[in-house]
Design brief:
Blueprint (H helix, E strand, L loop, with lengths): L5 H11 L6 E2 L6 E5 L5 E7 L4 E4 L6 E6 L5 E6 L2 E6 L2 E12 L5 E10 L8 E7 L3 E9 L10 E5 L1 H33 L9 E5 L10 E4 L4 E5 L7 E5 L5 E3 L2 E6 L2 E6 L5 E6 L2 E7 L25
Parallel strand pairs: 2-12, 3-11, 4-12
Antiparallel strand pairs: 1-2, 4-7, 5-10, 6-7, 8-9, 10-11, 13-21, 14-15, 15-19, 16-17, 16-20, 18-19, 20-21
Length: 309
């Protein structure tokens, strides 16, 4: 049988019963921080006549507190804070006590025995249950004249939660970057200038309607494109059908060099442009002469149009 050296056995014993001691702030050693681990027991050092405070995460609330010596400790909770203070303990047993009256005469009476907080008897454990976690503590009362730093405040930090938040932010950023890239690519696709298939258009411009007459017109087999220079007014667009009825057409605008391009979501034989009393008729003389191999609802095969009501 192999015998372990005494120092190794001592190290193992210490590691098995080790306490998690809160780390001191660089500004004041009485202000401390503890990294939460569900498997750790945290040592809280208190001095008689002083109060110590534990601060848990902002989003949790204390549900239950249990101490091995509740008669000797004043434990008060408020939201995510727990305040700890040692208090004297009155035993039930009566003992004969002596007091002196105003004349100096001794007066005998029976009174309860009160034990003042002391490091030996006030050592105990504390378990705190919150809405999110369970905390386990050892409470240690220090001597009044001890130079040991006590815990005025213990602020808990949560490494695993911080890690999860960082990972969630990282994933959210990746998704946002992907969406931005896809949106930019889609926008580039939409803004591309399409190859004209038909320039065979003629216009009939009513008197005084020159300011709504396009400088050029063409279609790509799917959409109709009307170009206006900066001196022109962009008109409303209507389909003029065989029954001489007008219906408004859907449009959007692009920029092509120094021209504003009105993109009409249709190819048609006759189109009317209106702005107030101004009127321009456009006839597509190449309509239906060079059809596409199939019907598209947008000029981009990667883009699908949806009409929102």
């Amino acid at each position: 049988m192999k015998i372990l050296p005494a120092l190794v056995l001592l190290a193992l014993a210490l590691s098995l019963g080790a306490l998690e001691i809160p780390k001191s702030s660089k500004f004041d050693k009485r202000i401390t921080y503890a990294s939460y681990n569900a498997d750790d027991v945290f040592l809280i050092k208190v001095r008689s006549g002083y109060v110590s405070m534990l601060k848990f995460s902002e989003d949790e609330r204390i549900v239950n507190i249990a101490s091995g010596f509740s008669n000797g400790w004043d434990l008060a909770e408020k939201d995510n804070f727990l305040f700890i203070k040692a208090k004297p303990y009155a035993v039930d047993a009566k003992e004969q006590q002596t007091m002196f009256d105003e004349s100096g005469e001794a007066v005998e009476f029976e009174g309860a025995s009160v034990i003042q907080p002391n490091p030996e008897d006030w050592k105990t454990n504390l378990i705190v249950t919150t809405t999110k976690r369970v905390y386990v503590f050892d409470l240690q009362l220090e001597e009044e004249n001890s130079k040991t730093n006590v815990n005025y405040k213990v602020d808990f930090v949560y490494p695993s939660e911080i890690k999860r938040e960082k990972e969630a932010k990282k994933i959210a950023q990746i998704l946002a970057d992907q969406q931005a890239t896809e949106k930019a690519a889609l926008n580039d696709e939409i803004q591309k200038v399409n190859v004209p298939r038909n320039w065979n258009f003629v216009m009939h411009v009513n008197k005084g309607s020159d300011t709504i007459a396009p400088d050029f017109a063409y279609d790509d087999g799917i959409f109709t494109y009307l170009g206006f220079n900066s001196t022109k007014t962009i008109p409303s667009v209507f389909l003029f059908d065989e029954a001489n009825k007008e219906s408004i057409l859907n449009t959007h605008q692009n920029k092509n060099g120094r021209y504003d391009v009105l993109v009409i979501h249709k190819t048609a034989e006759k189109i009317l442009l209106r702005s107030g009393n101004k009127l321009v008729g456009i006839v597509n003389q190449g309509y239906g002469k060079n059809p596409l191999d199939r019907t598209y609802d947008t000029t981009k095969q990667s883009v699908k149009r949806e009409i929102l009501e």
